[in-house]
Amino acid sequence: MLRSLNAIVLSSVPVGSGGVVIRTFTDLEGKLSFLVRGLHSKNAIFKPSYLQPLVVLKVSADIRANRQLHYIRDATIEPAPQSLFTNPSTRALSFFVAEVLQRSLHDFQPLKPLFEFTVTWIGQLDQYKGAQGYRVLWYLSELIKILGIAPRILPHHAWLDLAEGISTAVEPSHPYKSPPQITELLHTLFNQPDEQFITQSSGFKSELLDVLLLYLRLHIPGFGEPKSLNVLKYIFL
Question: Does this UniProt record's set of keywords contain Lyase (predicted)?
């Protein structure tokens, strides 16, 4: 069936001679993979810039429920932040967020609120060049909330049981927990991700990132460890 979709590029893998498999997150069908052939031909519908993670495309595609790979008939790129193509730090950020999305979603799992939030977040990348490390933390907290797996953190509880997803006044006996100072910052992050959070969390970005990723690993089967994490930490944290 021929469908018109908006798609966020997550990753791309070259195949064969001039072909590429593009993994995307679409507004109407969730995560989909497309096969594009003739990438370097004169009449190619795709340009190299289309393959950058977090680029947003409008595509006309042949979608078949019994296929793992689908076919793009036409594609155009939406306006994108300039730093997505020119700034190495923003590119590293885009690879990380795209990988987290790819690990969090299942094929044919429409999540339009997450798609719309992500498109808005991408569109603001040029505006937050001095605070992109915090923007990553905010993105992960919003991802967790939209997926419906947000922890319940009460302000008077010192510890967060990451496995159970609930705060507690008593330190959990297992290793999947966040200490009082990080739990307090997580409460702020999940409830008021603004300048107040940036001020309070100074010096704790790396710890917060580790806790958020551990939480995703515990609550999303097969999530694993993002390969782009070390690069992200080196640049931003």
Answer: no
